[in-house]
Structures are given as C-alpha cells and as structure tokens.
Amino acid sequence: MSITIQNGTRSIKIHEVSIKTPTESIDITGLIEDIDIYENMFSDGINCRVRIKDTINLIENTPILGGETINIVFGYEKLSEKFAFSLKIVEVSDYVLSENRTFAIYSIYAISEQALKNTQIRLFRSFGTEKNKTKGSHIVKSVCNLYLGIRNPHVDETKHERYFCATGWTPHEIFEYIAKTDEPLNKKGKYPLPFIFFETREKYYFVGWDTILDGKLYNEDHEVYLNDPFIHDKQQTISYNLHNATQWKMEAFNHEENITSGIFGSRNVYFNIIHRKYNVVEPKHEDILKSSKMKRAGKIFLIDNAHKLIDKSNHYSKLFAFVGNNDYKFMEKVQEKYIGIQTAITQLFDNIKVVATFENLTSLKVGGLAFLNIPSPKMRANEKTTTWKTASGYYVVSAIRHHIDKNDGYMQSVEFIKGALDD
User: Is the full-model pTM beyond 0.70?
Assistant: First the structure.
C-alpha cells in the first residue's frame, strides 16, 4: 500500500512503511500519523520516530517486542529517486488509548542496525601484533564487516601502523580510539585534521575532516538562499543544487563558554596503567590556527581569535584516560604531536550554526558542503536585501531531519555548521 500527500505544488509519495518480523511483513502505511527521521554527523547512527494510529492492535498481534525491522520509503511522486531507510525498533512509548477503545496512538522509535549492534557488542581481542602491525583504516574496515554488518564503508586511509588490544570496547569506541590517535595518509599542512565517523541513508563513513572540507565526499556544490524574497521561484529550476529555505535561524558563538571549555580547555592527560607514567599535553594554539586553512572551503574554519572556539570534543574523548602498555610506544610518538591538537580542532566545528527549513526534498547530504547566502536586514525601504558577508559562505551539512505528516506533507530541516565568521 502507498499513499500520496500533497506538498505545496508537488506530491510526496510514501511508497512503504512496513514492519518485518522473523515470520511476516506487515504494511502499516495506512496507520501513519507522522514520521521523523534524523541523520546526524555527531550521533551513533540514523534514528527515527514513527507515530501511528493503531486500529488493528498491531502492538499486541504482531507482537512488537523490539528488534523488528521497520522499512520506510518515500519520494516525489513523479521522480524515480527514493529515500529509503531500514531501521531496528528499540522502543514503543507515548501510548494513549482512545476513550471508546477503538484505537490507540503511540510512537515507535527505531535506530539503524549498526547502531543497535554497537550497543550489543563488547570486543576483547587484539588488532595486529608487535611483528605484524596493521593500519587503523584496515581495523575500521574489518570491524565494520565482521561486527556491524557494514559491507562497503567509505574509509579514508590512515598513516600509522600499530597494534593494540580492545578490552571490552564497543566497535564505535575502537573507531573513536583510531580517530583520535591517527592521521590521514595524505594529510595537508603541518598538523592533521581529525577523523570523524557517521552514517547516512546511503553509506557509512570514516573520513578525515579535510575530505569533508575540500568537498570530496560527494563532489557536489550546493547553493542555499535563506528566506530571501528577491530570489525568484523559477531560479530554483536552474540547478538541482539551488535551494530556497522558507525559515531559518542562526546561533552565533557563546563567548563565555568558549573561554572556559573551548581551545583553552583542551589539555590532555594520559596515564600508562602498566608503567604508571602520565603526561600532560597542551596543544600549540598558534600552529592549530595557522593549519586550519583549507583549499576551496578554507573560510569554513577561518579562525583569527581563539575565543571564538567551542568545545566539541565529547564525540572523541572517551578512551584517553588510560593507555595499555602494548600501544604505549606508539602513543608516546603521536599523542603529544597530534592528540591535543586534534582535540582542539574538534572544538571548532559547530561554533556557528544555522538551521534552515525547506518545504521540499533537497539534494543536500550529511557531510556535504553548501554555500549559504544569508540576507542582512534592509536599512532603507527601497533597499534590496543584501548578503551578510561575514556569515555567508561555505558550511558543512551536519544534520538533516526528514518530517512527514499525513496532513501537512513533507518538511526538511537542515543544520549547517562552521567555525567562525568570515573577515
């Protein structure tokens, strides 16, 4: 069963919403009230919420116990491209029974299969040996294939060969460890930008930030106009990559937080539990700022004042209180040189944030680049809208929310981030 929802001048078609159990597949498209799907660079995976009006006692007759697969497929009615998601149910909540007990309304929450597997797996094993070391990128690919069921991840090659033991680590904690202690094979500049790992509807990525900032992840250019009435509707048809947002808001930097938890708070302390040694590492701030220039998208992180930086290290910092003896020699070589610097760099990424709403499907993708044209206020009645030059420019697409409502149609909210205002 499929349903069509009018969305402005276009129609959104929900091709499928179904729940698959070990014994059957149940079509619940007709029960849908609304759907929210989230893709985010800084989360463990894709997650969604599906609110349904249950008139068939689905929750009991199926029954829904957790771990079932929910498939969601939608797109424009007259276009072949489809947005497809296959997720695992992890929660049912917000259950409300109607007064006449003829139906119930509740929400089904689901996450991607690899994110669920990550919560179920603890690895006690070695990677490489002292005589036969292996690269971090090879470890990432191996863990994706063997433990997370990810067959063709996009993994940037890492430089260092190492060996270490995982002692009860989840797959994502192993990724964090490698992301924090390694550097790209073909790094740019004196200091490497760190790695990041995330999932989109198309692929799983473990990539260096330089890959993202150079626009190499998708090799696409996007131009976005934020609620500018002077952009004619017909202009949107010139390029599939030109989008016009209907609503938007901007979050600038927080000066107080930047002082206490930004680059000035990026000191690293690590401790060898075998030799009982510890070391304190502080990044070289001037070198970090000089190395943040990137080709083509360089102005994303054009940082001239350290007080503009904000803490974004939580995604990477879990594993660095203790370092096992077998990896200690390797850590002695790279930790002081890279880890403190990479921690500081990760604190730059969402200092400036713009959230825009589109009333249509866009070709924007998480991890891609977009050039934002942000309008400035009109100072005179006859003045045309001008561009806010210091805020406009290249941003990274860090998150996308897909919202489908059976009455109101489709809406896409996109989060854009960069490190600082331009000159």
Answer: yes
